[in-house]
Each structure stands twice: as C-alpha cells, then as structure tokens.
Specification:
Number of domains: 2
CATH superfamily of the largest domain: Glycogen Phosphorylase B
Oligomer: single chain
Bound molecules: uridine-diphosphate-N-acetylglucosamine, uridine-5'-diphosphate
Number of helices: 17
Number of strands: 13
Strand content: 5-15%
Radius of gyration: 20 Å
Mean pLDDT: 97
Largest sheet: 7 strands, parallel
Strand order of the largest sheet: 3-2-1-4-5-6-7
Structural class: alpha/beta
Helix content: 40-55%
CATH topology of the largest domain: Rossmann fold
C-alpha cells in the first residue's frame, strides 16, 4: 500500500507526526511525506522535524507564500506530478490549510482515494478561508476522520454517507500526550523569568485580527490591558510580524510593559509554556484543543469556533476581539475562577492508531 501524506504548515506537521509513526509500524505500507512548502521558515517547519521525530520529506514542492489562488494552484501543479509518478493507493490530508485544499482537489480529480483527518469541523463562517478548505476536503474524501461527535453531526447534516465517517478522536492531542512529560521537564517558563501560573501566553495570527490596521490596533490594546493585570509572552507568527512592521505598530507592541516578544517557538517550548501559563489568549485552532487537554483556561479572540467541544466540555471561552472583556476574563482566571473542563471523548492519544487501523486493515471503529 503506497500512501502519500501531505504537510504544508506548522499545525500540519504536528498532526501528521502520530500518523506517520502509526503507518511506519504497519508492514506492507510504504508511507511517504510530501511537504508543499507553504510554511518554510525554520521556526515554522524544520524545528518540528527534529523535535517530533518526523520522517524525512520525500517530496518538497517549495510553494512558498502567495495569494490563496497562487498557493493553491502552485501546490496542485506540483502535487499532480507526484501523484502521476507515484500512483498512490491513498492520499492523506490533515486540517484546513491551503495545502490541504490543493492536494485534496488533485486526489479527487485523479480518482485517488482521499482521507481527511480532522473532518467535519465547521465555524459556519465562510469568510474564513479555512472553512472553504475544510468543506472541499470533506466533500472529496472517501474516509472522513472526525475528532468529535459534533463534527460527525455536521457531516451527517450535510448528507455525507455515514459509512465514510469515522469518529476516531484528535491526532493533535496524540502529539500533546506523547510529548507532555518531555515538555513539562523543560520548564521553559524559567528561561523567560516566569513562575508557574504567573504569566499569560499569547498567539495571534488570523487575518481577521492582524491584517487590518484598526483590528491590529485593538489587538495591541488587548495585550496592553491584559499586561496591566499580569505579565505575558507572545511568540509572533510571521504573518503578524509582517503586519506589525508594515503598519508600524511594532513599536507600540514593543512598548507594552511586562510583555516578552519572541520568534515562534519550537513545539516542546511552546507546550511547556502552555501547561504552566495561567491562561492562553489565542486565535489558533489547535491551541483551543491543546489547552482543553492540559486543563489551562483559553480565551479565543474570534467571533466563533469550529471546535465548539472545547467550549462546551473544555476550558475555552470565545471572547471576540474585545480588550476590556479580555482583561476582565483574565482577572477572573487569576483569582481562581477559570474554566476547568473535562477531556472530550477519544482525545486519549490513540486517534492516529485508529485512523491507520481503518485505512490499512479496513476495520470499523
Ligand atoms: C496558514 C493557514 C492557517 C493556519 C496557519 C498556521 C491558510 C489559508 N492559512 O496561515 O489556517 O492557522 O497557517 O500557522 O492556509 N510567512 C513567512 N514565513 C513562512 C510562512 C509564512 O514569513 O514560513 C509569512 C508570509 O509573509 C506569508 C504570511 O506569513 O504571506 C502568511 O502565510 P500563509 O501560509 O499564507 O498563511 P498563514 O497566516 O501562515
Ligand atoms: N505552536 C508552536 N510554537 C508556537 C506557536 C504554536 O509549536 O510558537 C504549536 C501549537 O502548540 C499547536 C500549533 O503550533 O500545536 C498550532 O499552530 P497554529 O496556531 O499556527 O495553527 P492553527 O492551529 O491555528 O491552524
């Protein structure tokens, strides 16, 4: 069985890591890795290969940055050649980024069976490119691996054949659980001069928060207000870094007292900082899930979430881009009233094993 696994961005690498390992353990499976090159900075790509013991890349498309159409089209052209040469039995895509969309389209057009891991998530907000990407990947997939029951329900509501839907749990959580002890032992907070539960961790990179100057200005106000309550650390995503620079708001962010700005961090440092933070303030998708499993309160700076289980069962609160509310929520958390939550069903570290059982052994989960 010849399997092509696709990665393009930071969260893809974190999701594919347990899948690659599970495929590797199966005899009779040749599992290859295709990197589209959507993310190319060492801090967004190379570092995860070393830390997460990912297999080396078999094909690199070097697509780089561009508009949605440029990135999608370039990836399709490169990936189609690989599919032609490899004649794979299966293409595996994860998540909802442009690389996911592009490779799903190629698999669909060439008639190669497609597995979509993290199927069925919906924000019901088509202004987010990720929502379009997820919907298309799900429409084309033969195997839809859902992380939660709400994701299965979304797919059924859309008329997807129930025989193709598999509720397997969450591969991102497989990675958290595999590396949690190593991350805890690092005590990365100490390198930044923090003590346990005495700092906030920020990540913000969504176009809706950083691409327009007035919104980015509000992001800075949010960070200022929260920093007045408690110190923080903000590893800055390259999209945000670029927008800060072009809008000349970078100086304003640097002036925020008690705030450390860093480059994006490696997985183990980031996980370590997450587990020891009093709370995480983010617009990331995956971090909403990771904080739920770690039991750390998460404030999501978005209008909605495609991961509602992190709100109904986990530690997540969706607060929008609302600086006074963020400060108020942080005060509550610091005074011991943060959400505790519980761990969602099947977020147990074995999702990738279940996916591979279905794909290789044809088992029902
Ligand atoms: C992409 C995904 C988003 C995901 C995020 C994870 C899409 C539509 N978006 O957003 O869903 O949450 O990755 O981090 O697929 N850049 C660099 N170096 C890099 C990569 C990007 O400097 O290695 C800069 C470039 O200026 C680029 C910008 O960041 O134009 C945005 O990169 P892009 O991959 O288009 O989108 P992300 O915002 O990273
Ligand atoms: N992450 C990391 N270093 C950082 C910020 C995030 O390793 O500086 C990890 C984080 O733990 C999670 C993933 O990157 O596993 C989330 O990626 P991102 O927020 O870029 O994408 P999204 O989940 O929003 O698609």
């Amino acid at each position: 069985m010849n399997v092509l696994n696709v990665v393009g961005t930071r969260p893809n690498l974190i999701k594919i890591s347990p899948l690659a390992r599970a495929f590797h353990r199966k005899s009779g499976v040749v599992s290859k890795l295709v990197h589209t090159g959507q993310h190319y900075d060492a801090t967004l790509s190379d570092i995860f290969f070393a830390e997460l013991e990912l297999p080396s890349v078999d094909y690199h498309l070097d697509v780089g940055s561009g508009t949605h159409a440029e990135q999608t089209a370039d990836t399709m052209i490169g990936f189609e050649k690989i599919v032609e040469g490899e004649a794979p039995d299966l293409v595996v895509v994860v998540g909802d980024v442009n690389s996911t969309l592009a490779c799903a389209l190629v698999a669909g057009q060439r008639g190669v069976p497609l597995a979509h891991v993290e199927a069925g998530l919906r924000s019901f907000d088509r202004s987010m490119p990720e929502e379009i990407n997820r919907m298309v990947a799900d429409a084309l997939a033969r195997y839809l691996f859902a992380p939660s029951a709400d994701a299965c329900d979304n797919l059924k509501r859309e008329g997807v054949d129930e025989g193709g839907i598999y509720f397997v749990g969450n591969v991102m959580i497989d990675t958290v659980l595999a590396w949690r002890d190593a991350a805890r032992a690092r005590r990365s907070m100490e390198r930044f001069g923090f003590r346990q539960k005495e700092y906030v961790l920020y990540t913000l990179h969504r176009p809706e928060n950083v691409d327009q100057v007035d919104r980015l200005d509000q992001v800075i106000e949010l960070v200022e207000r929260v920093s007045a309550e408690i110190p923080g650390i903000f590893p800055v995503h390259p999209r945000t870094r670029l927008r800060l620079k072009t809008s000349r708001l970078d100086a304003a962010l640097r002036r925020v007292p008690r705030l450390i700005l860093t480059e994006p961090l490696g997985y183990l440092d980031f996980l370590s900082l997450m587990m020891d933070a009093v709370c995480v303030i983010t617009d990331s998708g995956g971090i909403q899930e990771e904080t739920t499993v770690l039991g750390v309160p998460c404030l999501t700076v978005r209008k909605n979430t495609e991961r509602p289980i992190t709100v109904t069962e986990g530690t997540n609160t969706v607060i929008g881009l609302d600086p006074p509310r963020a400060a108020e929520e942080v005060r509550e958390i610091v005074s011991g009233h943060g959400k505790r939550g519980r761990i969602p069903e099947l977020w147990d570290g074995r999702a990738a094993e279940r996916v591979v059982e279905v794909l290789v052994e044809g088992s029902r989960v």
